[in-house]
Amino acid sequence: MPSEQGKDPASLAALDVRQALVLTIDGPTASGKGTIAQRVAQALGFYYLDSGALYRVTALAATRAGVNLDDAPAIAAIGAHLPVRFEPDGRVLLAGDDVSDAIRTEQAGQAASRVAVHPALRDALLALQRGFQHVPGLVADGRDMGTVVFPQAALKVFLTATPESRADRRYKQLIEKGISANLMALLQDLQQRDARDQSRAVAPLKPAQGAYVLDSTGLDVDQTVEQVLNRWAARR
Ligand code: CDP
Asked: Exposure of 106 by Cβ count < 10 A (0-12 exposed, 13-18 middle, 19+ buried)?
C-alpha cells in the first residue's frame, strides 16, 4: 500500500471519494426511500444523502427571495450557492435558519418537483451531491442517484410500491405528526408528482440499468431494510 504521507489535501480528498462505496435508493414519492435509506446507512455505518432535501431547500430559498419557480437561470443561481447544512441530529439549515419542518410540507414537495425540471439547477447541484461521498461509504436517496449522480454505485436500488399504498403511508405519517390530511387529495398529489418526475426531459425518474427493483407494497420497514441489506451483502 502506498503511504498517504506527503499527499496534498486535495489528492487525499479525491482518494476518499474514489474509495467510498455508494448504495443508491431511487424511487417515486412516498415509497419510503428516506426511512429505508437512513436505516440502511445506519446499519452499514455509511453517510447519508437526502438529495430531495436539496430540491426542497432550493424551492424554499427561491420562494423566500420572491423568485419565480419557472425562472431557470435564477433558480440555478440559487442552487449553485445554496447555504444549506445537514446537522447530525437531522435538522436542515438554510443560511442558519432551521427549515426542517418548512421543507416537509406537501406544498414544499410540489415546489421541489417544479424546480427539479430545470437542467441548469440539476447541474448546479451535482458537485454538492458528489461531495457527500466519504469512506467508508454513502447511501444516497432520490430520483436520479443511480442514473446520473452516482452511476458507479456498487448497488442501485429502485424502491417502489403501488400509488394507493404510498398515499396510505403518507396519510398515516401526516396524521401521526398531527397534520390533517385527505387521502384522495394525497393520492392525486402523488400521481401528479410521479407524472412530472417521470416525464421530464432531464434525469427522469426510472430504474437505473441493472437496478434491483424492490416493490415494498405489503412489506414493513424492517422487511424492506432486510431485503436491501441482503442484496448489498450478495453484490458482486
Ligand atoms: O419525499 P418525497 O419522495 O416525496 O420527495 P423528495 O425525495 O424529498 O423529493 C422532492 C422532489 O424533488 C421530487 O418530487 C423530485 O421532483 C425532486 N427530486 C429530484 O428531481 N431528484 C432527486 N434526486 C431528488 C428529488
From this structure: middle
CA distance linking residue 171 with residue 175, whole number of Å? 6
Q: What confidence tens digit (pLDDT) does each residue in 124-161 have?
A: 999 999 999 999 999 999 999 999 999 999 999 999 99
Tell me if 144 CB under 6 Å of ligand 1: yes
pLDDT tens digits, one per residue of 15-29: 676 789 999 999 998
Cα 111 to ligand 1 centre (Å): 10
Strand partners for 21:
137
How would CATH label the architecture of 19-235?
3-Layer(aba) Sandwich (3.40)
* Nearest atom in ligand 1 to 29's CA: 3
39 and 48 in contact (C-beta within 8 Å)? no
Q: Which atom of ligand 1 is nearest to the CA of 196?
A: 16
Please choose, from the candidates 41, 199, 190, the residue with its C-alpha nearest in 3D space to the C-alpha of residue 116: 199
What is this structure's pTM?
A: 0.90
Distance (Å) from CA 7 to ligand 1 centroid: 38
